[in-house]
Design goal:
There is one protein chain. This protein folds into 2 domains: 250 residues, tm_1862 like domain (pyruvate-formate lyase- activating enzyme, Alpha-Beta Horseshoe), CATH 3.80.30.20; 73 residues, Arc Repressor Mutant, subunit A. Helices cover 41% and strands 20% of the residues. The protein contains 13 helices and 15 strands. Helix 1 packs across helix 10.
Length: 375
């Protein structure tokens, strides 16, 4: 099986924390759609006949596209892969884009999952982050999506935000749970170099939360969602029974995927490649039949390290059988030797021949995974 990721680079405005590639040059939408469809056709052999089971439209803000834009993209995908075999087709959307009229248009398309970027229900913080929606619009967006027939809804939350307290984070969690989305992704704010919020941090206009608060927020996150019936199937992802993200899970399981659009990454099992992070150069390259991209041939150490980083993030953990089969005794022994002190310390455990983090280990997962890597 395989997946397709489509990167839609357009945003009305840029959020101050975002380091994903995006642009506000919406006047290039038509040229982009033409180039994207051409790229999909140009790269029809990349997945080598693997059936496509998931498609994910990310960004940027995919909900900036029109019905006609999506129809052109799906027509192109259908010509090569067909969406009939897809079990999950996701659209990322901003709450303020999800009007009843727009949702009615989306319901005419093959989307069966919608991921809504809410981040927080705190209006002052939303304003600080330069988000376009209000808390009431976020709540209404979920309700409107339900009314439009979407029964697989994910929402994004962020914590560790400037000015956030234990009380405001608990309020966010309670509001999120009250909406009963099938899936919740919750990420700690990272001050990525080059973003406006990174500059604000260094000008002391905002203050980064300390480690103690970060741990408290994460504890509240896991406890509150567990009480509400959500399973933590990956460090930052929670779902109601059987509602995990099939597309994102395929990344963590090393499944092949094709990424199209500016800055989009692809993986064929042996190499990773990514398109140029420039809309104008992306369009120009595709028009001239000279896609501008970088390819990395993954050596054994890199493939092993990626297996560790991706699989250990999940509730299923690392299959020791898969590790042995893919990398042999040397890597198997290396991994278990490095893991031993964490097993003794009850931070890792082996269950059904899978090495996995314990609840205690989740709090220090980065350090554990780092020690399992082979440099």
């Amino acid at each position: 099986m395989a997946g397709i990721y489509i990167h839609i680079p357009f945003c009305k405005t840029r959020c101050i924390y975002c380091d994903f590639y995006s642009t506000t040059k919406s006047n290039l939408t038509n040229d982009f759609i033409q180039a994207l469809c051409k790229e999909i056709k140009m790269r029809k052999d990349y997945l080598k006949g693997e059936p496509v089971e998931t498609i994910y439209f990310g960004g940027g803000t995919p909900s900036q596209l029109s019905l006609q834009d999506f129809q052109k993209i799906f027509q192109t995908i259908n010509e090569i892969y067909a969406t009939s075999s897809c079990k999950e087709i996701t659209l990322e959307a901003n709450p303020d884009d999800l009007t009843p009229q727009y949702l009615d248009q989306l319901s005419q398309l093959p989307f069966n999952r919608i991921s809504i970027g809410i981040q927080t229900f705190n209006d002052p913080i939303l304003k600080l982050l330069k988000r376009r929606h209000s808390s009431s619009q976020a709540i209404q967006a979920v309700a409107k999506a339900r009314e439009a027939g979407f029964n697989n809804i994910s929402i994004d939350l962020m914590y560790g935000l400037p000015g956030e307290t234990e009380e405001t984070w608990l309020k966010d969690l309670k509001q999120a749970i009250a909406l009963k989305p099938e899936h919740i992704s919750a990420y700690h704010l990272i001050y990525e170099k080059g973003t406006p919020i990174y500059k604000m941090l260094h000008k002391q206009q905002v203050k980064e939360v300390d480690e103690e608060k970060s741990i408290l927020f994460f504890t509240q996150l896991t406890q509150q969602l567990a009480k509400a019936g959500y399973k933590q199937y990956e460090i930052s992802n929670f779902c109601l029974p059987d509602k995990y993200s099939c597309h994102n899970t395929s990344y963590w399981q090393g499944v092949k995927y094709l990424g199209c659009g500016p800055s989009a990454h692809s993986f064929d099992g042996k190499t990773r490649e990514w398109n140029i992070s420039s809309l104008t150069q992306y369009i120009k390259g595709i028009e001239e039949n000279n896609r501008i991209h970088t390819t990395e041939l993954l050596d054994t150490n890199t493939l092993y390290n990626e297996l560790i980083i991706t699989s250990m993030r999940t509730c299923w953990g690392l299959s020791l059988e898969k590790l042995s089969e893919a990398f042999g005794k040397e890597y198997y022994d290396y991994c278990l030797k490095a893991a031993n002190k964490y097993i003794v310390g009850n931070l890792l455990e082996i269950e059904n021949n899978h090495l996995k983090l314990t609840p205690k280990g989740l709090f220090v997962s980065d350090g554990i995974m780092s020690d399992l890597l082979k440099i």
